[in-house]
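Fold this complex.
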Amino acid sequence: SRRNAKQHRYPPGPPGLPILGNLLDAPKEYSWFTFARWGREYNSNIVSFTVLGRRLVVLNKYKDAKEIFEERSRIYSDRTSAVMATELVGWHRNFGLTPYGELWRLRRRMFHQHFKPQVLPAYHGKLMKGARSLTQMLLESPDGFLKHFRRVPGTTVLDVVYAMDLDPRDNATMEPIEKAVKTFADLADAGAFLVDLIPILKYLPSWLPGVGFKRQGAVWGRWVSRMHEDPYQEVKSDVMSGKSRPCVASDLIREFEDRLNDNSVEDSTVEEDIICVTGTAYTGSDTTTFALANFVLAMLLFPEVQQRAQEELDRVVGRDRLPDIADQDSLPYTASIVKELLRWRPIGPVAVPHRSTADDWYEGYFIPEGSLVIGNVWAILHDEERYPDPEAFKPERFLTAEGTLDPSVPDPSQAFGFGRRICPGRYFAQIALFLYISHMLAAFSIEKPVDEMGNVVEPTRECEARKFWHPKPFKVKFKPRLEGLESMTRTPGS
Ligand code: HEM
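Structure:
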């Protein structure tokens, strides 16, 4: 290793132990802050460290992320995945984890075809319905706001993907799906299982002592399999019996119908491709949930932003109806809240690492094949040169003095990742966020609650800060601010 270090100048970083590398001191929480600090300590925008022989390279500046992930995307677009999550639990079906190659390209294309900006107007009605439901649910049971933030985006995606016209309060249908998706986060939180480090252990029989991971994997695997299979099979049987059910799954089934029915074609993967593409969409909706929790926190911490948005909404939309997707262009300040939210507290502050597939040299540093390259989204979106006063929540930074969108301010698109693996659900997510946020701001005054003693309850400073970044459960008051709000929530948008 000493000879290698001499030959190859790796990006600087903290010294590690033999074999273990930085396993013991690699940050478990708020890694984005540590990576930025290392950058300052080692006086380099690119830092690196190792864990069990694998090199991790962190890019703290936009210019390097752009060069590596975009200009050199051919060799920086692969993924690494853990045996427990993919092979034992079944998350290999999520194409976000699929290795870079033909299969990933095919599934990504199928997904993009149904989530590209041009097709999204077809989903506006369903998105509007979701925003109205969210408002209704916050009116009925404001204390359950965090649960509503999970349910509503989730049911909207299920409606778009499988035409499942669900009431977000439908626990019986939603709970098993949510349980399956939670295993994704639980696996990420648990870190590496022994089987991830020693893959051959996956062949041990489940009944052996110490092989609890296999039994756990089998239980989680059943939930994950049902989440992928059940809604798809329902749509398929409807399509086969000629029932109309417009949605992503039925479009894909019709598109590939010949190959699905023709048993002589040795192409049994078409069905698997459709199952994977549709199943992946629901998993993506989790991020919207966390963004909404961050939004409420921002409104409590920066009340002047809420006030300014409500002035805009009252002026443009009025006080006798709820906002509509058609209002978006006339609500630049409210629309900029979505951008600032993604910038101020990116939900995935280190996105998802990209694995490199060839040796490379960049800025005099050696990046060996198999490195995990991490774009430090938080550092990029809090770079003072790009966004002055980065800790402040200032939607107006995206606007000109006249209040229109300022094209010279960089769009915080890195919140959705980088290069060829950038989030393909980002256009959908941004419309959904605009609708949920504009509805909440129009309908409610979002305030700090007061306890029994009359003291104002300050919002939490505690966060989940491993893979995703969002506040731990906290209390808030949603005070209705429109006359006749209840009946407005029952009026469909245009
Ligand atoms: C605020 C909401 C969202 C945020 C912040 C977000 C963020 C991200 C990020 C950071 C990545 C990794 C990109 C990379 O590897 O460089 C990603 C991937 C992905 N996202 Fe999203 N996402 C959001 C919503 C959604 C939604 C609603 C969907 C589905 C409708 C979705 C579907 C996906 C998929 C399929 C991938 C995997 C792409 C691939 O590996 O090729 N996301 N997202």
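The pocket of protoporphyrin IX containing FE is lined by residues 96, 108, 111, 115, 157, 280-281, 284-285, 287-288, 291, 347-348, 351-352, 415-418, 421-425, 428-429 (CB under 6 Å).
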